[in-house]
Write a structure and sequence with these properties.
heterodimer, A: alpha+beta, Rossmann fold, OB fold (Dihydrolipoamide Acetyltransferase, E2P), 2 domains, 6-stranded mixed sheet, 23% helix, B: 11 helices, 79% helix
């Protein structure tokens, strides 16, 4: 187990810069997720940590040691790929034992550790089979067992759940987190799936276009996005132009065309340091659709019309019209949603809003 | 089955084509068991005497030994070079990779006679005498494309992340090659070697141009014998050649099938 430290890392491919100057510190034992759309540089970053790519500039440290010139096979890392990458010509047990052959481990110890690893991933019976005979989910568990049996300093997971179908993916998510908690290995997880990132991580690193947009625990990244990109990438958000008119000790006052004056807590607008143009971030699930004429305390209410209803079972997504602005709201529902065309009230609590500086 | 008259005709035509292709071969095999001195029907009796005579013919035995040694060496060198070239072209970024690839494949596209004459003229130009080594080099040149084509096709389908996984687990590049890459492309490597051997074993055009005086391979020996007379011995030799060139690939196929069965299909 070790910490990972990236210092001023840059990766260029020819004239294209895949990762712009980035520094990142991953504490020992943490589960850190690199999250972003495809092409954002997250996999490139992971491959540099793994030693599969050399950074164009900057330093990579693992456990306090500079790793730039250490080849991948000497880095002691566990690597899990999207497509499992099991050795098709070796049995499951041989696959898991592979890394131990290159370490000073006795035959008896190899057998014991392989069994322990297969137990840990809950597949103790499949040692004699070939990978082809296993399902995708089972193969990914074996790939995980193979990566952790060597007791790696860092576990690197490159979209390990993306190839599985939806139900299995959620089970594996819980399973993966359980195993990581159990062995406590420092883990870097790459995904484009926000729900995976939110569910599993201690820290999320949101990336876009080769740059880090925000680093923080899931709740922070989700509730207080640091940029418009983060607000849009994690969940559905409504972003409205606003004007910051006043900053007091603990709140920021915004003038918003549709909502009037909103005083939101300073903690929800950490980057808004100046008065002037700003952006208001309204999470779709913080906008509550209610019948008109029932204002509650501490709630801002405006009138709106429901344009479209996207019914999803336990939740519903409304597309609403207020004047010439369209807003999205995602609400949990008891029985039936409001009908299309209904004239309703839209409630929002100021403390559920977040604000960003303009631009 | 059965179908209309059209299908019957098509089937009949196909039979005729096969007959045209394989009858001469069948005749050679049949006549090799003929007791008579003269290759003519009806056969005068069944006999293995021509095989016995073959086994006692020093020149043919020598040609056989030469052919087998030449074939094995060609297969070994071509396969090694082919595997290395394929690795370089597929796995590493080589400058002008496309041109090199075309250049390596080119010998199949050039008619063999042209290639044979060209190499001979080139050797003359360099004042190098013909030798067994040069004959071997010639065979390597025109078996190499087959090996490269087969091995490259296989290598492309081996996922890079399997090798990366091996390296992440502590195997260095050489160990990764022998533990992962080579076993995965073994069927193609064996197929390439088999190709190289049979092509070298069968070749006559290039060999006639390149062989030094006094060295004969089986095909050139048959060719030489045919110029004098058509001896029934040649029929026997033909039978042996057919057995070898058909049997070897079949054996290889069976072996490959056995291997993949062991791996759980």
């Amino acid at each position: 187990m070790s910490s990972v430290k990236l210092t001023n890392i840059v990766k260029r491919f020819g004239t294209f810069t895949a990762v712009h100057r980035t520094s990142l510190e991953i504490p020992e034992g943490a589960f850190v997720t690199l999250l972003g759309p495809s092409g954002c540089g997250k996999t490139t970053t992971l491959r540099m940590i793994a030693g599969l790519l050399d950074p164009s500039e900057g330093e990579i440290g693992i456990g306090g040691k500079r790793m730039n010139d250490v080849p991948i096979h000497k880095r002691n890392l566990g690597l899990v790929f999207q497509n499992y990458a099991l050795f098709p010509h070796k049995t499951v047990a041989e696959n898991v034992a592979f890394g131990l052959k290159y370490r000073d481990v006795s035959k008896a110890d190899i057998a014991r550790r392989v069994n322990d690893a297969l137990d840990l991933v809950q597949l103790p019976q499949v040692g004699d089979r070939y990978p082809k005979a296993l399902s995708g989910g089972q193969q990914q568990r074996i790939a995980l067992a193979r990566a952790i049996v060597i007791e790696p300093d860092v576990l690197l997971l490159d979209e390990p759940l993306s190839a599985l179908d939806a139900n299995l993916r959620e089970d594996m998510r819980v399973e993966l987190k359980r195993i990581q908690d159990r062995i406590g290995v420092t883990t870097v997880f790459v995904t484009h799936d926000q729900s995976e990132a939110l569910a599993m991580s201690d820290q999320i690193v949101v990336m876009s276009d080769g740059r880090v947009e925000q680093v923080g625990p899931p709740e922070e990244v989700y509730n207080t996005p640091a940029s418009e990109f983060v607000a849009n990438f994690l969940g559905a958000s409504n972003i409205l132009s606003a004007r910051c008119t006043e900053r007091t000790g603990d709140s920021v006052v915004l003038e918003v065309p549709l909502f009037g004056r909103l005083a939101i807590p300073v903690a929800k607008a950490p980057n808004l340091t100046r008065e002037g143009p700003a952006k208001l971030v309204l999470r779709a699930e913080k906008l509550h659709v209610a019948p008109r004429g029932r204002p509650a305390d501490g709630v801002v209410s405006i009138d709106a019309t429901i344009e479209t209803v996207d019914y999803q079972g336990q939740a519903v997504r409304y597309f609403l019209r207020v004047g010439d602005t369209q807003l999205q709201a995602i609400n949990m529902i008891d029985e039936r949603p409001f009908a299309e065309g209904a004239e309703i009230a839209l409630h929002v609590r100021p403390q559920d809003c977040a604000a960003l500086p303009e631009g | 089955m059965g179908g209309g008259l059209g299908w019957q005709l098509v089937r009949g035509w196909a039979m005729l084509v096969y007959a045209f292709m394989f009858l001469p071969v069948a005749v050679v095999v049949l006549l090799s068991f003929n007791a008579s001195e003269f290759g003519a029907f009806p056969m005068s009796g069944f006999s293995l005497r021509w095989f016995v005579e073959l086994a006692n013919n020093e020149a043919i035995l020598r040609a056989f030994r030469t052919s087998i040694i030449l074939g094995l060496l060609t297969a070994a060198i071509s396969t090694t070079l082919g595997v290395l070239a394929s690795l370089a072209l597929v796995r590493y970024r080589v400058p002008a990779a496309n041109m090199i690839s075309t250049l390596l494949i080119a010998p199949i596209l050039v008619p063999e006679v042209v290639l044979a004459v060209a190499l001979l003229l080139f050797l003359n130009f360099l004042n190098i005498n013909k030798s067994f080594t040069l004959l071997l080099m010639g065979h390597v040149i025109f078996t190499l494309p087959f090996v490269i084509l087969v091995v490259q096709a296989r290598l492309v389908s081996i996922r890079r992340d399997v090798e990366e996984a091996a390296m992440s687990l502590g195997a260095n590049p050489v160990q990764t090659f022998f533990q992962v890459t080579l076993p995965l492309m073994l069927p193609a490597v064996l197929a390439g070697a088999l190709f190289a051997f049979t092509i070298s074993f069968d070749d006559i055009t290039g060999t006639l141009f390149w062989k030094p005086g006094g060295v004969e391979t089986v095909p050139t020996q048959i060719f030489a014998m045919l110029r004098n007379s058509i001896s029934p011995e040649i029929n026997a030799l033909g039978t042996v050649m057919i057995l070898l060139t058909v049997g070897l690939p079949l054996l290889g196929l069976a072996l490959a099938r056995q291997l993949s069965k062991k791996r759980g299909g």
